[in-house]
């Protein structure tokens, strides 16, 4: 509850408004749509038509807000809000969770386990968004507008530490490196095989950040030789490739990086090669890395929730500012949901001891329960406490069983073949 109260105080503060309004002249008069109410409205899962969402918002908050405002008035008001305000609120939540909360923070040994990965987000088809983000084509001549999304995600605690929505032409490695500003010395970063390169690994070593990356066997002659040797683990040295451009780098052709290669045998007989900065074979035996790398799957399930539960691609506007606002608001709501769920973990562990099967929170329903209740959560201290307890009770009443030994193959191209956005103009649901 303390974290929610701190966010509430910040949400209604003059400091937040002054920092994240677009112009000094914005929100200076006492209007129907003041700064915190605009933020709360955007946080309230705007997935239907704006007219219906405004009617729902006014009906729900009738004691707290004046007469009804129009769709046009909201569109004008939201243009006065910098999208980064939701990043600020989310950062406040994250900072509070990781501060003086050692008992609640889940670690892998001494490390906070972070995964970085990218995806594509399908945007509305407008000339503005197409020029800013770029378009993609499938096997036909159909063109869709997409942005490149990148997040850094705590796979054991289920928090998004940072997210970026960038042009499709942006490189995943460059976006990943920008996330490192949110990392600490006790973090262990996990990457899929699209990320490793000499320069990328070098940047982690330079920052004294530990990592675990999957690499192709053909990554270099060193990995090819390691795969042929059938060794389980080996400390090796890499140098920049012969054709690497070095004029703009902080290293030269003779700069070594020392890493450890790990062999992982998969159930179907394939061999997987992992590369890590954890060199101590006694402290980190080879046998732990298969299960360790598998925890990267947490970021894959996060993207599934972001797109299919939070429905981030169902944007409430068509300008770049609206797209960015909706994206960062979705990440913030995801962290709010995680915080509520974390408050129930001790109860679930206790209750599961008395049941035949273990049960967990129904993620899909948990987001649905936040509709409107997220407004009560941040309006008054009295509403906050009641809404918080109501949410916890709803979550506990709608648990689902945990099904062990389930696995799903990743379909990395399914969002590239989509022929149109999820929600086209003038076709949003009214019910």
Automatic annotation (TrEMBL):
Protein name: IS4 family transposase
Organism domain of life: Bacteria
GO biological process, one term: DNA transposition
Transmembrane segments: none
Domain Transposase IS4-like: 111-336
Region (Disordered): 411-431
Organism: Flavobacterium rhamnosiphilum
Listed GO MF terms: DNA binding; transposase activity
């Amino acid at each position: 509850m303390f974290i929610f109260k701190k966010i509430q105080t910040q949400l209604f503060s003059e400091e937040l408004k002054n920092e994240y309004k677009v112009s000094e002249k914005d929100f200076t008069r006492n209007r129907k749509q003041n700064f915190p109410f605009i933020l709360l409205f955007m946080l309230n899962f705007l997935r239907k038509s704006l007219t219906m969402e405004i009617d729902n918002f006014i009906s729900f908050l009738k004691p707290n807000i004046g007469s009804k405002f129009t769709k046009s008035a909201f569109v004008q008001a939201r243009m006065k809000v910098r999208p980064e305000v939701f990043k600020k609120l989310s950062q406040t939540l994250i900072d509070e969770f990781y501060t003086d909360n050692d008992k609640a923070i889940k670690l892998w040994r001494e490390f906070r386990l972070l995964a970085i990965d990218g995806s594509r987000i399908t945007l509305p088809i407008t000339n503005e968004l197409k020029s800013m983000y770029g378009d993609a084509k499938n096997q036909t001549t159909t063109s869709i507008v997409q942005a490149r999304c990148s997040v850094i995600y705590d796979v054991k605690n289920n928090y998004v530490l940072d997210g970026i929505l960038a042009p499709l032409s942006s490189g995943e490695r460059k976006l990943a490196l920008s996330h490192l500003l949110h990392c600490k010395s006790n973090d262990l970063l996990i990457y899929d095989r699209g990320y490793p390169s000499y320069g990328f690994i070098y940047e982690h070593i330079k920052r004294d950040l530990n990592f675990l990356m999957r690499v192709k066997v053909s990554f270099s002659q060193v990995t090819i030789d390691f795969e042929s040797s059938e060794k389980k683990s080996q400390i090796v040295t890499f140098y920049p490739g012969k054709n690497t451009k070095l004029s703009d780098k902080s290293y030269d052709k003779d700069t070594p990086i020392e890493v450890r290669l790990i062999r992982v045998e998969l159930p179907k007989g394939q061999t997987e090669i992992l590369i890590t900065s954890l060199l101590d074979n006694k402290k980190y035996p080879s046998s732990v890395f298969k299960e360790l790398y598998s925890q990267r799957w947490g970021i894959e399930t996060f993207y599934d929730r972001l797109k299919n539960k939070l429905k981030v691609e169902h944007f409430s506007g068509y300008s770049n500012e609206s797209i960015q606002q909706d994206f960062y608001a979705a990440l913030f709501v995801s962290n709010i949901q995680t915080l509520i769920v974390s408050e129930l973990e001790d109860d679930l562990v206790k209750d599961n001891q008395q049941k035949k099967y273990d049960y967990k929170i129904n993620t899909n329903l948990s987001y649905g329960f936040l509709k409107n209740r997220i407004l009560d959560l941040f309006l008054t201290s009295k509403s906050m406490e009641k809404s918080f307890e109501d949410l916890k009770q709803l979550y506990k009443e709608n648990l689902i069983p945990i099904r062990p030994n389930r696995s799903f193959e990743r379909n990395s191209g399914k969002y590239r073949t989509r022929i149109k956005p999820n929600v086209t103009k003038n076709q949003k649901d009214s019910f």
